[in-house]
Protein backbone atom coordinates (compact mmCIF):
# COMPACT_ATOMS: atom_id res chain seq x y z
CA UNK A 1 0.00 0.00 0.00
CA UNK A 2 1.88 3.17 0.75
CA UNK A 3 4.88 4.39 2.58
CA UNK A 4 4.21 5.06 6.25
CA UNK A 5 4.64 8.74 7.14
CA UNK A 6 7.20 9.54 9.80
CA UNK A 7 6.54 12.54 12.07
CA UNK A 8 9.12 15.31 11.69
CA UNK A 9 10.88 16.52 14.79
CA UNK A 10 11.08 20.29 15.05
CA UNK A 11 14.02 22.23 16.47
CA UNK A 12 16.34 19.22 16.40
CA UNK A 13 20.05 20.09 16.30
CA UNK A 14 22.96 17.93 15.35
CA UNK A 15 24.83 16.99 18.45
CA UNK A 16 28.35 18.31 18.75
CA UNK A 17 31.19 16.77 20.68
CA UNK A 18 32.67 19.12 23.24
CA UNK A 19 36.37 19.90 23.00
CA UNK A 20 36.96 18.22 26.35
CA UNK A 21 35.60 14.83 25.19
CA UNK A 22 38.04 11.94 25.70
CA UNK A 23 37.39 10.68 22.15
CA UNK A 24 39.29 13.67 20.77
CA UNK A 25 43.07 13.33 20.49
CA UNK A 26 45.15 14.73 23.31
CA UNK A 27 46.72 17.56 21.26
CA UNK A 28 43.31 18.81 19.98
CA UNK A 29 41.61 18.71 23.36
CA UNK A 30 40.79 22.01 25.11
CA UNK A 31 42.75 22.73 28.24
CA UNK A 32 40.89 23.28 31.51
CA UNK A 33 41.15 26.91 32.65
CA UNK A 34 43.79 27.39 35.32
CA UNK A 35 42.73 29.71 38.14
CA UNK A 36 45.34 32.21 39.33
CA UNK A 37 45.68 32.78 43.02
CA UNK A 38 45.13 36.44 43.82
CA UNK A 39 47.94 38.18 45.61
CA UNK A 40 46.44 39.91 48.71
CA UNK A 41 49.23 42.51 48.76
CA UNK A 42 48.64 43.58 45.12
CA UNK A 43 46.94 46.91 44.44
CA UNK A 44 43.39 46.37 43.24
CA UNK A 45 42.11 48.51 40.38
CA UNK A 46 38.44 49.26 39.90
CA UNK A 47 36.53 50.99 37.11
CA UNK A 48 34.81 53.96 38.71
CA UNK A 49 32.71 56.17 36.40
CA UNK A 50 33.98 59.73 36.19
CA UNK A 51 31.37 62.15 37.52
CA UNK A 52 31.28 65.73 36.25
CA UNK A 53 32.82 68.34 38.51
CA UNK A 54 29.71 70.54 38.31
CA UNK A 55 27.72 68.11 40.48
CA UNK A 56 27.98 68.59 44.21
CA UNK A 57 26.31 65.37 45.35
CA UNK A 58 23.02 65.65 43.42
CA UNK A 59 23.07 69.46 43.26
CA UNK A 60 24.10 70.95 39.92
CA UNK A 61 26.28 74.04 40.45
CA UNK A 62 26.22 75.06 36.75
CA UNK A 63 22.55 76.02 36.86
CA UNK A 64 22.29 79.72 37.48
CA UNK A 65 19.83 82.57 36.95
CA UNK A 66 20.03 83.29 33.30
CA UNK A 67 18.58 79.78 32.85
CA UNK A 68 19.17 78.13 29.47
CA UNK A 69 16.15 75.98 28.63
CA UNK A 70 16.31 73.39 25.84
CA UNK A 71 12.87 73.34 24.24
CA UNK A 72 11.41 70.22 22.58
CA UNK A 73 8.90 70.18 19.69
CA UNK A 74 5.96 68.93 21.72
CA UNK A 75 6.58 71.53 24.46
CA UNK A 76 5.95 74.28 21.91
CA UNK A 77 2.83 72.49 20.61
CA UNK A 78 1.41 71.96 24.11
CA UNK A 79 2.10 75.58 25.06
CA UNK A 80 0.05 76.67 22.03
CA UNK A 81 -2.79 74.31 23.04
CA UNK A 82 -2.67 75.59 26.64
CA UNK A 83 -2.55 79.21 25.32
CA UNK A 84 0.66 80.00 27.22
CA UNK A 85 3.26 82.59 26.27
CA UNK A 86 6.35 80.37 26.28
CA UNK A 87 9.01 82.77 27.59
CA UNK A 88 6.72 84.50 30.08
CA UNK A 89 5.46 81.23 31.58
CA UNK A 90 9.08 79.99 31.90
CA UNK A 91 9.98 83.15 33.82
CA UNK A 92 6.89 82.76 36.03
CA UNK A 93 7.91 79.18 36.79
CA UNK A 94 11.55 79.90 37.67
CA UNK A 95 11.29 83.50 38.99
CA UNK A 96 14.36 84.46 36.93
CA UNK A 97 15.49 85.38 33.42
CA UNK A 98 15.14 82.47 30.98
CA UNK A 99 16.82 81.98 27.62
CA UNK A 100 14.91 79.38 25.60
CA UNK A 101 17.30 77.43 23.35
CA UNK A 102 16.28 75.46 20.29
CA UNK A 103 18.53 73.03 18.39
CA UNK A 104 18.67 72.54 14.62
CA UNK A 105 17.12 69.06 15.05
CA UNK A 106 14.06 70.43 16.86
CA UNK A 107 13.74 73.13 14.22
CA UNK A 108 13.91 70.51 11.46
CA UNK A 109 11.30 68.39 13.26
CA UNK A 110 8.88 71.35 13.42
CA UNK A 111 9.47 72.16 9.74
CA UNK A 112 8.74 68.53 8.79
CA UNK A 113 5.38 68.67 10.59
CA UNK A 114 4.13 70.93 7.81
CA UNK A 115 1.45 73.58 7.42
CA UNK A 116 -0.60 72.46 10.42
CA UNK A 117 2.19 73.52 12.83
CA UNK A 118 3.07 76.89 11.23
CA UNK A 119 2.27 78.74 14.49
CA UNK A 120 4.81 76.54 16.34
CA UNK A 121 7.37 77.29 13.63
CA UNK A 122 6.74 81.04 13.98
CA UNK A 123 7.22 80.79 17.76
CA UNK A 124 10.43 78.75 17.31
CA UNK A 125 11.85 81.39 14.95
CA UNK A 126 11.26 84.13 17.55
CA UNK A 127 14.27 86.41 18.23
CA UNK A 128 14.16 85.61 21.98
CA UNK A 129 15.06 81.96 21.21
CA UNK A 130 18.74 81.10 21.06
CA UNK A 131 19.60 78.79 18.14
CA UNK A 132 22.05 75.93 18.87
CA UNK A 133 23.78 74.31 15.87
CA UNK A 134 24.02 70.50 15.65
CA UNK A 135 27.15 68.74 14.34
CA UNK A 136 25.77 65.18 14.14
CA UNK A 137 24.03 63.17 11.43
CA UNK A 138 20.27 62.64 11.45
CA UNK A 139 17.48 64.83 12.74
CA UNK A 140 16.10 62.81 15.66
CA UNK A 141 15.61 65.56 18.24
CA UNK A 142 15.33 63.35 21.35
CA UNK A 143 18.80 61.82 20.85
CA UNK A 144 20.20 65.28 20.15
CA UNK A 145 18.77 66.75 23.37
CA UNK A 146 19.92 63.81 25.51
CA UNK A 147 23.43 63.99 24.02
CA UNK A 148 23.68 67.77 24.54
CA UNK A 149 22.45 67.55 28.14
CA UNK A 150 24.89 64.71 28.92
CA UNK A 151 27.84 66.78 27.66
CA UNK A 152 26.85 70.14 29.19
CA UNK A 153 24.81 70.09 32.39
CA UNK A 154 23.91 73.79 32.21
CA UNK A 155 20.50 73.23 30.57
CA UNK A 156 16.95 72.67 31.79
CA UNK A 157 15.02 70.43 29.39
CA UNK A 158 11.46 71.53 28.54
CA UNK A 159 9.43 68.58 27.21
CA UNK A 160 6.08 66.85 27.54
CA UNK A 161 7.24 63.59 25.91
CA UNK A 162 7.13 60.73 28.47
CA UNK A 163 9.87 58.72 26.75
CA UNK A 164 12.27 61.68 26.65
CA UNK A 165 11.53 62.52 30.31
CA UNK A 166 12.30 58.90 31.26
CA UNK A 167 15.66 59.09 29.43
CA UNK A 168 16.61 62.44 30.99
CA UNK A 169 15.74 61.34 34.54
CA UNK A 170 18.59 58.81 34.28
CA UNK A 171 21.09 61.67 33.86
CA UNK A 172 21.93 63.15 37.28
CA UNK A 173 21.65 66.90 37.80
CA UNK A 174 19.41 67.74 34.81
CA UNK A 175 16.03 69.34 35.69
CA UNK A 176 12.94 68.81 33.53
CA UNK A 177 10.26 71.43 32.83
CA UNK A 178 6.85 70.30 31.58
CA UNK A 179 3.29 71.56 31.11
CA UNK A 180 0.50 70.17 33.26
CA UNK A 181 -2.94 71.62 34.07
CA UNK A 182 -2.39 74.49 31.60
CA UNK A 183 0.65 75.91 33.43
UniProtKB/TrEMBL annotation:
Among its keywords, does the record have RNA-binding?
A: no
Q: Name one GO cellular component term.
A: small-subunit processome
Residue span(s) of domain PIN: 67-166
| GO BP | ribosomal small subunit biogenesis; rRNA processing
Listed under subunit, the entry gives: Part of the small subunit (SSU) processome, composed of more than 70 proteins and the RNA chaperone small nucleolar RNA (snoRNA) U3.
Role noted for this protein: Part of the small subunit (SSU) processome, first precursor of the small eukaryotic ribosomal subunit. During the assembly of the SSU processome in the nucleolus, many ribosome biogenesis factors, an RNA chaperone and ribosomal proteins associate with the nascent pre-rRNA and work in concert to generate RNA folding, modifications, rearrangements and cleavage as well as targeted degradation of pre-ribosomal RNA by the RNA exosome.
Kindly provide the name given to this protein in its UniProt entry: rRNA-processing protein FCF1 homolog
